[in-house]
Amino acid sequence: MGQDGAAAAGARVTNQVDALIRAAQQGDQDAFEQLVRTYDQSVLRLAMNLLRSAEDARDVYQEAFLRVYKNLDSFRFDCSFHTWLYRIVTNICLDQLRKRKVRKEESPVVDTPEGPLDRMESFEEDAAESDPERSLWNRQLKQKIESALEDLTPRERTVFELRHYQGLRLRNIGEMLGTTEEAAKNCLFRATQKMRAVLGDFI
Amino acid sequence: MTCDSVSKLIPLYYYGELNADEEDRVEQHVDSCAECSRQMDQQRALAAALDRRQATVPPFLLENCRADLLAAIQGGAPRVERKQKGPWALFLEAMASTFAGMSRLQKPAGAVALIALGFFAARFSTTTSPNPPLATSIGSTAPSDDVFATVRSVRSDPSGQVQIAYDETRRRTLAGRPDDQSIQKLLLAAAHEDNPAVRVESVDLLKERTGSTEVRDALLNALAHDPNDGVRLKALEGLKPLASDAQVRKSLSQVLLADTNPAIRMQVVDLLVAHRDDSLVGVLQGQVKREDNSNVRLKLEKALKDMNASIGTF
Prior knowledge:
Number of strands of chain A: 2
Oligomer: heterodimer
CATH superfamily of the largest domain in chain B: Leucine-rich Repeat Variant
Shape of chain A: elongated
Low-confidence stretches of chain B: 81-134
Shape of chain B: flat
Number of domains of chain B: 4
Largest interface: A-B, 50 and 40 residues
CATH class of the largest domain in chain B: Mainly Alpha
């Protein structure tokens, strides 16, 4: 698809989303459900990646979309719905991360009704390693990455997450977090510096 | 450009956040500076290492989240209204939603007028007027505040009198422990209500009491026939302790073949394989051929493999 084609497809999606929002604002439940389904997978993935707990991600999902539902009437189309939604989601995630910072380091093992579960286990494994040394090294790297991410401030963590994993532009990220593009750039720089310092020997 | 300034731009360069001019200058410097070139390599290695820690969303999480949200909304999560609406606006909205609901049900248009009139009559009957009512009731009392009226017929005679026949529904509240017989009876009835939020709540309460045959049948019925994913998931949860029961297993096999929701099919496979029986292999083999969801298919294939059964039938 050429650039014009991609732009046209993007505009079409925006129009469809706008139509869904207007219908949902008029009380159309089906339209609201479709609107949720358009975005909820990426919202859940973002929450899972940031909070690394299915339970917390579920809370974020519920709270975010309930806020959207309750406040949809106040959405005025003066920014994209995606930005508006992510502003809500990132605010909730930031609150959760801040609460965690206060509670301080959590054990990577959480209790579930099915028995203890290692948080790290919920992340994609590389293809099975036949080399045990390589596998051990990978596990250590994974732990290092987790602790490097834990060392970031909630805001650095969120900016990094949105840029690296969600592929959003820093200008948009600044808008979502109620700050400037410049501040988002600084956050990204500090986040990568910290991680390079921790992971220096491993990468 | 100094090494210090380039070092600050390396992450932004990597993420494509620099303008073309800045990009050129960074590239020129990196090409001629060993230390900055090493830093650029480190940035790429860091990103590659981080790419491998994408979270996977557990299989049922998305479906569960959707069901929770639907239940919360249908259970009456309040909307923040922009402004107070006048009675006329409210009436028009109610009319519009009545028409929308009717069109979904594809009832004849003529019926709409009666329903609209029924709605209007209900509103009218619940309004307390400062003046004494001019109407007199024939054969029953006039509707009061806690009564919802459905108008069945409207007749006017030449003298100008109007005769309206209506059914009335009175709201009552019953409180008690979930195991009280009258509460149980109402919960069983509520599992068939039109409002899915009511069904989710009642099935959720019923699933704690699977000892009774009535409850078990209600859960099986909800799992097999309820159109709402949230209700079916709750029913399935309630049936977990009964997964070894022959009749439950028969129903679960049917649900595996018929349910449109892959999250439910995944859970059904888990329940079925937890108690192995001879007929199970055939059911799983049949489903693996027709399953269009890759996650469910993988689960089925794994289950068959664990049972030392072949994936296809011969």
